[in-house]
Amino acid sequence: MVYEAGGRADKRGNVYENRYLAHLLLKLVSEEMSAVVVEPAGENANAYEYYTISPDNKKTYYQCKGSNGALDYWRPSDLK
What we know:
It is built from one helix and three strands. It has one helix at residues 8-29; strands at residues 35-38, 50-53, 59-62.
């Protein structure tokens, strides 16, 4: 299914993304993470929604997309 901009699926996707960000921020407050960077600017701006840095400086990247363009599934080769 292709999501229409501003449609029900788009709104639910935004709610999910916001809730997951809140989950990550709670981990930051509890010192399970050293940093949460939200939608960074630059050449990777569209590659991920946010990334976290653990206390041992490991970066973990997060992407909250429900669809892959016109496809409703993801293949490992689609992840860059």
